[in-house]
Amino acid sequence: MNKSISQRMNQDILITFAVIAVLFVALGSFMLVRWKDDNIHIVCRILDTLVAREQDSLANELFERRILALDMRLAELSLVEDVLRVELYHARGLPLAAASRGAATEVSTPIDIDGWDHVRGYAFDHDFSALRFIRPIIAAGETIGWLRLDYDLSLLRKQTLSFLAYMFSILVMTLLCTQLLLRRRLRKSVVNPLRKLGASMREMNSQTRTFNVPVLKADEEIANLGLAFQELLVRLNSSYRDLDEAHQALARSERRLSRAVLASSDGIWEWSFDTGQAYFSPRWYEMLGYEDQELPMTFQTWKDLCHPEDFQQAYERIQAVVNSNGGKSYSFEFRMHTKDGEWRWVLGRGDVIERDADGRPLLVSGTHTDVTERRLAEERLRQSEEKFSQLFRLSPDAIVLLNVESGRLVDVNDSFTSISGFSREEALGKTLLELGIYRNPGEREEIYRRLAREGFLRDFEFEALHKDGSTVVSAMTCQTLTLDGVPHLLAVLRDMTQMKKLREVMIQSEKMRSVGGMAAGIAHEINNPLGIILQASHNLVRRTRPDFSKNTQVAQTIGLDMELMARYMRARKLDLFITDIQEAATRAAGIIRRMLDFSRLAESGRSQCDLQTLIEHSLTLARNDYDLKKFYDFKKMDLRISVEEGLGKLACTETEIEQVFLNILRNAAQAMAEATPPVENPRLEIRASRVGDRVRIEIEDNGPGMNAEISRRIFEPFFTTKPPGQGTGLGLSVSYFIVTKGHGGTMEVESEPGRGTRFIIELPFKKQGQE
User: Fold this and answer.
1) 237-261: string of b/e by CB count within 10 Å (b at 16+)?
2) CA 29 to CA 39: how far, in whole Å?
3) Does a structural domain hold residue 206?
4) Are residues 559 and 650 in the same domain?
5) Neighbour tally for 415: CB within 10 Å
6) Close Cβ partners of 116 (under 8 Å, ≥ 6 residues apart)
7) Which of 657, 665, 667 is closest to 740 using CA atoms?
8) 350 and 401 assigned to the same domain
9) Mean pLDDT across the stretch 89-112?
């Protein structure tokens, strides 16, 4: 049911009053609470000053346990105005003495001293009738007792109630006055004038659509509302007349519009069989470089512009559509002559859209689409295929194309004959196994298994056999593709024999460079335990000398037999010095042992290694790297290691994998040390988990990160972002070769500027060919 303006006005006034009342109460409550808290804190500061004034006297009497003096002093404090009770407690919160109204009283229960405010130096609570104030008694920096004062808050409670009554009275008077004023004003200027205006509208003449605006004693907006309604009726009458005229014009153009909708947005043409006339749209002329209607709209115009070799076929297609009685549509590509003398390919489409009662065609309509760019693209594609065929033949890398289903070679280039020794005629139609290309036939299953998992294979290194029986180390990059609906494998093989020898030299060279950097670190670390040894030895000799007065005094107090000598050593902490000597020697021996293990040449075979131990050894080597310590100390970094439980042993060359970890750790530390601005709270996380038959190792930092260009080239040999003399650009390249070629794994990097870097390494648990 609709409500009147007066009813809605009353409802809105009530809602407004309710909101004002809520806000008023909230503001008053907030002010009251603030006022009450301020008064409470003022009282607390007064009491704190009072106790501070008696601090020294209470501390002395409490320290000397003069209970009678304490009772008298508490009695004096209880005489202070509004102080109800004073109690004194031991340092552990146990009651000691109490006074009230100038006389000693019985002590109360213990107090809880755990929650007092260390910043303000006191604690308090209240129940609006009394304030309980607690402050520690401190002597020589230590708390020796607690003083509690109960303060009367009755005056504060009376002031609060008076404030609430005053606020309530103001609120009621304000709401009543506001309601009276709003109701009178709205009724006079809004409600009554709108009622008069509504009555006049109901008396409007429905034939002429006019009405007389009443004289309203109201605000300007209400008076203008009647005038606006009258103007709206005038414009509505004019709109009715315009709508009738537009409807007639729309009916005249509807026939042509429906034909245009059937065609496309390209050049539109029509051909009338009754008159022989034609119609070409402005886009049709523009497509050929002419101005609109620059050429006559006739069938002959199209015939003159059409290429002589294409016209006859195009005309026959149109005649076939005309004679098919709606059975098919016209579509044909032909060339047309442009104004600038060029030939452009045009796709013509059309159909008969009007016929007479006997089925004879009256009107043919269609579109012309410029397809020159597509035809040129097809020609370029054909030429590109010819060039690709030449590149396929002349490529310096061996390229083979084989049928995935049969595994037989479909095509090979000339470089394949050089690497394998087989001629093209000998290779085609046979499989790589039949040619004996694989030294280890099991590698063929590994290739197809990785292709099925990843969709492509990059730089898969294996040993291929030449026709004469010699071994060729090859790297294969391949991917599956579909040709004529049949899956094929396109593989590129590169002779890596010389490259592999170079990699081995690079790996050993980089390892020796790392060992050289850490050798200085070992000398630096050995100095620390040696210093401890010398200092402990010096103290041991100095504190056992008979001519040292302090030693003589201690020895005389405990005697000279063996038992007393043992007590003397414990009292002077000589046993701790001996322990320091032992720990320092152990530490030096451990550092030297780990350095010697790492500096050995990589073993030709592999062993079963514990990944957790490898990570910890790598971190130890990084902490002892002297070159790193010059720029960054690993002890300042948040190191987090997470290795999945039950991960198992990893078949690898221990020193090589440690070198990979060390190279990544070194790069991360240097990047965070040289970042601008410096990295706050540097963090390094190492995670290891099992993924199928492989182990996944992630090393992530929160350093400055890298852009896409650097990430793409990070594993390239001799690529470095460091200044000359600070890096060779071989560390990550060697690491990549160790992981991918040496251990059959994968190594990737993910990084964004300002968001850190993450290296992802995946290694098989078993080496290739291992059962």
Assistant:
1) eeeeeeeeeeeeeeeeeeeeeeeee
2) 15
3) no
4) yes
5) 21
6) 122, 123, 134, 136
7) 657
8) no
9) 82
- In 3-state terms, what secondary structure has residue 196? helix
Same domain for 539 and 609, yes or no, is: yes
Task: Please tell me the distance from the alpha carbon of residue 620 to that of residue 614, in angstroms, as a whole number.
Answer: 10
Report the C-alpha gap between 85 and 102 in whole angstroms.
Answer: 9
> Looking at 237, 254, 271, which one is the last position of a domain?
254
CA distance 437 to 445: 14
Domain of residue 52, CATH code: 3.30.450.20
- Does one domain contain both 472 and 584? no
- List residues bridging with 479 in a β-sheet: 456, 490
The Cα–Cα gap between 737 and 718 comes to: 14
Nearest to 72 by CA among 117, 102, 109: 102
Nearest to 493 by CA among 524, 520, 527, 458: 458
Mark whether 517 and 582 lie in a shared domain.
yes
> Rounded CA gap, 114 and 93, in Å?
10
Contact 62, 70 (CB under 8 A): yes
- Copy the structure tokens of residue 87: 């109690």
What is the Cα–Cα distance from 529 to 84, expressed in whole angstroms? 67
Give the mean pLDDT of 555-573.
66
- pLDDT band of residue 689 (cuts 50, 70, 90) is very high
Which amino acid, residue 50? L
pLDDT value at 695 more than 90 = yes
DSSP state of 738: I
Residue 87 lies in a domain: yes
Peptide bond into 678 cis (omega under 30): no
Domain stops at, among 470, 495, 520: 495
More confident call, 634 vs 483: 483
**Section 293-311 average pLDDT:** 88
Instruction: Report DSSP letters for 517-530, one per residue.
Output: HHHHHHHHHHHHHH
Positive or negative torsion for Cα 75, 80, 86, 92? negative
Whether the CB-CB separation of 471 and 463 falls below 8 Å is answered with yes
Which helix (H) or strand (E) covers residue 202, if one does?
A: helix 192-202
Task: Show the tokens assigned to 458.
Answer: 């990059």
Judge residue 222's burial from the number of C-beta atoms within 10 Å of its C-beta, 0-12 exposed, 13-18 middle, 19 or more buried: middle
- Domain assignment present for residue 18? The answer is yes
- Residue (of 483, 478, 485) closest to 452 by Cα position: 478
With a CB cutoff of 8 Å and minimum separation 6, the contacts of 371 are 333, 345, 346, 347
CA distance 218 to 482: 84
616 and 754 within one domain = yes
Kindly compute the dihedral angle of the four CA atoms of residues 329, 330, 333, 338, in this order, to the nearest 10 degrees: -130
Q: Are residues 525 and 487 in the same domain?
A: no
Q: Quick one: DSSP state of residue 602?
A: P
Q: Is residue 435 domain-shared with residue 556, that is, in the same domain?
A: no
Q: Is residue 445 part of a domain?
A: yes
For 216-248, how does the pLDDT look when each residue is reduced to its tens digit (9 = 90+)? 555 566 667 767 766 776 777 677 677 777 777
pLDDT of residue 763: 92
- Total domains in the chain come to 5
Domain that residue 306 falls in: 263-376
Question: CA angle, 514 as apex, 510 and 520 as ends, to 5°?
Answer: 150
Structure tokens at 217: 């004693």
SS3 call for 46: helix
Picking from 602, 606, 603, the residue whose alpha carbon sits closest to that of residue 769 is 606
Contact 433, 444 (CB under 8 A): yes
Q: What is the CATH number of the domain that holds 663?
A: 3.30.565.10
